[in-house]
Design goal:
Number of strands: 19
Low-confidence stretches: none
Strand content: 25-35%
Shape: elongated
Distance between the termini: 27 Å
Largest sheet: 9 strands, mixed
């Protein structure tokens, strides 16, 4: 029965496609090819008319948009026109229009794009509408839209055919409007703090600034392999050396890694660097950006994300990694600080899997946090003082050489930002790059590469600097309340169809 229904559906679709193409052919033969029209002057949009209806009633306007529904009653027809702002009803009456234009309009299909010239008025039922005088077909839709009561529900198809998703699912459009507003707020926030937006290379002979597997491409003219960037960090810090003092970049990042609801191979980050400040300054900035954006865009500090009520009111919790681990697991890593054997044993004693992990005290602390604590951090929390072993670009703590002045901020168990008091000692940086290069030589494809030029830059002198990086996509997920990164990336990476 299911197979028979599917065959019937396919036959109906084929018939609809044939009819729509036949209509287009007729239009072209009659010299009314809509695809030859190059311009239509739009004076207003649907929501603008609704918001200012009392002042605009009786005014002549022109609107352009897509027909989303049609209801005919003999000599009177109603349709819903959708433009970028929303929908408004179009009222078309045969004896108030050119009869030929009205008859042509009656043959238009749902999905067609039209231009409407008419008068703002309210119907007898009180519906704010446009009384059409002229309706012009601007583009013929050859594909039917999804059935109106169910829309486009299949997420796989929604991601592949985002253009259809945006037409029929208002919540998808809302997500991308929120994302756009967030990026605009972010830029305004940093610009007002005296930061300068810059651009750095996407292609580089070295992949650095993060622990991630890069995409490799080839430059034909120079006959060299190049890497698509996995972070913007090292180039931005070169600018701090050059005296720019406050710089940021909103840019695309590429990592050749797995995909899930929180990760896409290409994504957008904001990285910023400020001279003469430290980790505390970076906490204040991230807290200010996210809480301020929520208040401006959503009108509240309260958001619902991943089934949790999140409070973004400023003054977020700040806790060291060791304290967070002790609070959740009872394991006190500071009691055996620097003792590799004792640290690994302590991690294993609370059920941490250390297979394949370099058996260092710092790695044991980090793995315990990663496996046991991270998922418990629901409300905004800054976790500080990361081990040196997992923080090759962060400055060591002056009070504890085993730890660095680094934080990650978590909400709903998700990492939302990563920041350092930046390492500016070129000798220490060289040794850490060297250790990373050794790990890479042993097969760790995510380890940093040696960047001699960056070390050279540090030798010229970089002031004490705070640095912060965070994912635009994940922030958008939180503000939109979505559970998949694909809901906030217009065209997420998808496996090609056969």
């Amino acid at each position: 029965m299911a197979e028979q229904n599917n065959q019937n559906t396919q036959q109906e679709l084929s018939e609809i496609l044939r009819i729509r193409r036949d209509k287009l052919k007729t239009l072209q033969e009659e010299g009314r090819n809509p695809f030859e029209i190059t311009k239509f002057d739009v004076s207003h949009h649907a929501q603008e008319v609704k918001d200012n209806f009392d002042a605009m009633e009786g005014t002549e306007v022109t609107l352009g948009g897509r027909l989303m529904s049609k209801r005919g009653m003999g000599k009177v027809s109603f349709c819903d026109l959708q433009d970028k702002s929303g929908r408004i009803q179009i009222y078309a009456r045969k004896d108030e229009m050119d009869e030929e234009v009205y008859n042509h309009f009656k043959k238009y299909d749902i999905g067609d794009i039209v231009g409407v010239k008419g008068e703002v008025f309210r119907t007898q039922r009180g519906e704010m509408s446009i009384r059409a005088k002229e309706i012009t077909l601007l583009s013929k839709s050859l594909q039917p839209l999804p059935e109106k009561f169910h829309g486009l529900q299949d997420k796989e198809i929604r991601y592949r055919q985002r253009y259809v998703d945006l037409i029929v699912n208002p919540e998808s459009k809302r997500n991308f409007e929120i994302r756009s507003k967030f990026v605009a707020y972010l830029r305004r926030y940093l610009d007002n703090m005296g930061f300068m937006e810059v651009e750095t290379p996407v292609l580089s002979p070295i992949a650095g600034g993060a622990n991630a597997r890069p995409f490799i491409t080839h430059h034909n003219a120079q006959d060299i392999d190049m890497y698509m960037r996995i972070a913007t960090e090292l180039h931005l810090k070169r600018l701090i050396v050059g005296g720019m003092e406050r710089v940021y970049e909103v840019g695309r990042i590429f990592r050749n890694e797995g995909m899930d609801t929180k990760h896409n191979p290409e994504f957008t980050t904001c990285e910023l660097y400020q001279a003469f400040t430290n980790l505390d300054g970076m906490m204040d900035i991230l807290e200010g950006i996210l809480s301020g954006a929520a208040q401006e865009i959503l009108g509240t500090y309260q958001v619902n994300w991943l089934g949790n009520e999140i409070d973004l009111t400023p003054a977020w919790k700040r806790q060291t990694m060791a304290d967070a681990v002790k609070e959740v697991t009872g394991a006190d890593f500071m009691a055996c600080e620097g003792d590799d054997e004792a640290g690994v044993a302590l991690a294993k004693s609370v059920g941490v899997d250390m297979d394949g992990v370099d058996k260092k005290w710092g790695n044991a602390l980090y793995e315990t946090f990663d496996q046991k604590v991270e998922e418990t951090l629901i409300q905004p929390t800054f976790i500080t003082m990361y081990p040196v072993e997992v923080s090759p670009l962060a400055k060591r703590s002056p009070s504890d050489p085993h730890l660095t002045e680094r934080y990650e901020m978590f909400i709903c168990g998700c990492e939302m930002g990563n920041a350092f008091s930046e390492l500016n000692d070129p000798i220490d940086q060289y040794e850490r790059f060297k250790a990373q290069a050794e790990k890479r030589a042993k097969g760790d494809e995510e380890a940093d590469m040696m960047d001699d030029d960056f070390v050279l830059a540090l030798e010229y002198g970089m002031p004490p600097t705070g640095g912060l990086g965070f994912g635009i996509d994940r922030c958008a997920m939180m503000l939109c309340g979505t559970d998949s990164i694909r809901d906030v990336i217009l065209f997420p990476t998808m496996k090609p169809l056969d």
